[in-house]
Amino acid sequence: MSLRIAAIPFLFVLLVAAGAIGQDDKEADAHKKIPKEEVVIGEETFELEVAADAKLRAQGLMNREEIDDDGGMIFIYKRAQPRSFWMKNCLVDIDMLYLDGRGRIVSMHKMKKEPPRGENESAFDYERRLKRYSSRRPAQFIIELQAGSIDRLKPKVGETIELDRPKLRQIVVREERAERQGRS
């Protein structure tokens, strides 16, 4: 009888662990389903996840424990305008390039992960304390890469990153149309 009672907590731990592993698998599968765009920066090719709708842009690279050496994300907007990003729920440092509508770098940042939201900290207070990283100038595309990429690639403000801009604009228009239709 006591062996059965001792086995119950053990089985519970196994079930919880299996659920956590399943959740990690679901998140990994979700990342694999996000469309990707090949982008060359310097002499390196990156497979960037495309964030062209409000949901993916809001999620960004949150809760990721790592970014592949040749991975990252490209955020696409319909129009260039001053933008600002933060490191909400980001677990790793991220390098960021803000690009205008022609793919020229307008600013860069080496963003540092922030301490997580405190147990007694409201969502408002947590978000208020997060550092904002501004484009300072209008930006239409934002590229987030593994920390250290700026130092390795040595991009410069004013340099152009070759993007398939017509294709990216088409993606964002399609996603915005789908969002509008989904709300109707």
Our measurement of the CA-to-CA distance between the termini, rounded to an integer number of angstroms, reads 59 Å
Assigned CATH superfamily of the largest domain: Protein of unknown function DUF192
What form results from the Cα inertia axes?
globular
Please state roughly what percent of the residues sit in beta strands, choosing from under 5%, 5-15%, 15-25%, 25-35%, 35-45% or over 45%.
25-35%
Count of DSSP helices? 5
Helix content: 25-40%
Could you please describe the fold and organization of this structure?
This protein is of the alpha+beta class and 184 residues long. It has 2 domains: 1-33; 36-183, Protein of unknown function DUF192 (Jelly Rolls). The chain contains 5 helices and 8 strands; from the N terminus they run αββαββββαββαα. The strands form 2 sheets. The chain has a 6-stranded mixed β-sheet with strand order 1-2-3-8-5-6. The protein has a two-stranded antiparallel sheet with strand order 4-7. The termini are far apart.
Fold topology:
Elements: H1 2-33, E1 36-41, E2 44-51, H2 54-59, E3 72-81, E4 84-85, E5 94-99, E6 105-111, H3 123-129, E7 133-134, E8 139-146, H4 149-153, H5 165-183
Write a short abstract of this structure.
By secondary structure, the protein is α+β, with helices and mostly antiparallel strands.
What descriptors fit this protein?
single chain, 2 domains, 184 residues, Jelly Rolls, two-stranded antiparallel sheet, globular, six-stranded mixed sheet, 38% helix, alpha+beta
